[in-house]
Amino acid sequence: AQSVTQLGSHVSVSEGALVLLRCNYSSSVPPYLFWYVQYPNQGLQLLLKYTTGATLVKGINGFEAEFKKSETSFHLTKPSAHMSDAAEYFCAVRTNFGNEKLTFGTGTRLTIIP
Amino acid sequence: EPEVTQTPSHQVTQMGQEVILRCVPISNHLYFYWYRQILGQKVEFLVSFYNNEISEKSEIFDDQFSVERPDGSNFTLKIRSTKLEDSAMYFCASSREGVGNQPQHFGDGTRLSIL
Fold first, then answer.
1. Minimal Cα–Cα distance from A16 to chain B, Å?
2. B27 closest CA partner among B106, B96, B90, B76
3. Which of A102, A113, B58, B102 could form a disulfide with A92 if both were Cys (CB 3.0 to 4.6 A apart)?
4. What local confidence, expressed as pLDDT, does residue A98 receive?
5. Per-residue pLDDT averaged across A32-39, rounded?
6. What span, in angstroms and rounded, lies between the C-alpha atoms of A105 and A74?
7. DSSP, res A52
8. What is the DSSP string of B36-102?
9. Do A106 and B41 touch (CB under 8 A)?
């Protein structure tokens, strides 16, 4: 079984400040990890993914995430927040052993303070 | 960039009626999915579909639900005898392959409101 925990349903940061959104996963086999962003009234857009190889992955809009197996974490960061980053962010996990579904976390709503 | 498209964007239906939600996956994708998101809750997997048959389904996906690929481009979710608790945002997704490292691409969703 697999699961995702996102700490903090709401995060507020000032424009220009560091963004850190936390994600911890549970998986009995090596996971594939994804971050999706959802803007108001829109669908889920892939930000970045970790499959194998380099543990620090870069995505769109200046976001990056680091896979830490020892901590079972995949936190999302951005050095400098922009107003356009305000959205809901979902961490998701998937395995490659007969299990095609994505399992999502509960999401973190990011608010940017001008 | 190719997109997954869903219609309608908003569907309002009386309880007990049947609804069909439509999706056009990305053209060269072979795996198709439906997810739902009840207001304020997480996105939940409903079903995956490959080679004209269901490959995996969740506990939510009971006999009330069915999926179909009626032609080479559309992928539909049918909900029979809708209930109030079926009110949610329904997302269609597709991926080129079913392996875990292939990302799923999502549509903008259909907001289903059951009255």
1. 28
2. B96
3. A102
4. 58
5. 93
6. 12
7. S
8. EE-TTS-EEEEEEEETTEEEEE-TT--TTEEEE--SSS-EEEEE-S--GGG-EEEEEEEESSSSTTS
9. yes
Structure tokens at A14: 């000032």
Q: Are A49 and B103 a contacting pair at CB < 8 A? A: yes
Task: Answer whether A100 sits within 8 Å of B105, measured CB to CB.
Answer: no
A-chain residues near B43 (CB < 8 A): 44, 90, 92, 102, 104, 107
Element (H, E) at A2: strand A2-5
A3: contact with B, CB 8 A cutoff: no
The pairs formed by B66-71 with CB atoms below 8 angstroms and a separation of 24 or more are B67/B32, B67/B34, B69/B32
Bridge-based pairing of strands A87-94 and B31-37 is: unpaired
pLDDT of A49-78, one tens digit each? 998 888 999 999 999 999 999 999 999 999
Give pLDDT, residue A97: 63
pLDDT digits (tens, 9 = 90+) for B88-115: 999 999 998 777 678 899 999 999 999 9
Interface A-B, measured as beta-carbon pairs within 8 A, has a size of 64
Rounded to the nearest integer, the mean pLDDT of chain A is 91
